[in-house]
Structures are given as C-alpha cells and as structure tokens.
UniProtKB/TrEMBL annotation:
This is Uncharacterized protein. It comes from Streptomyces zagrosensis. Residues 48-57 have a biased composition (Polar residues). Residues 34-57 are annotated as: Disordered.
Amino acid sequence: MPELEPVAHPDCRVCFAADRGRTAARTQQAAGRVSDFNQMITEHPHPDNQSGEGDPG
Ligand SMILES: [Zn+2]
C-alpha cells in the first residue's frame, strides 16, 4: 500500500539528518525506525521567520 511520508525541510539540519536516517533504516528494512524518523520530521517545528539561526527548543 502507498505510504505518504513527511518531507524534510530543505534548510533544517535536524530534518536532513532524520531523512538520511530514514533512508538508511529503510535500506535495513527497519520499519520501526523508519516510522520513528517520519514522526521526527512530522513533529519538528519550523517557525515562519527564516532569518538567522533557529533558537533551540
Ligand atoms: Zn526540521
């Protein structure tokens, strides 16, 4: 069945890392980890202001 997966934010290092991890997890057929990375990307907040570096938290 088709799965809709969240897209990593292009300028977000956290999402970028999660996207890479998701790909690796899929290669290893670790469905649980793929789901974890998907959730991580989905729940990662991205404020509207893109100036400067994001604050932690
Ligand atoms: Zn992000």
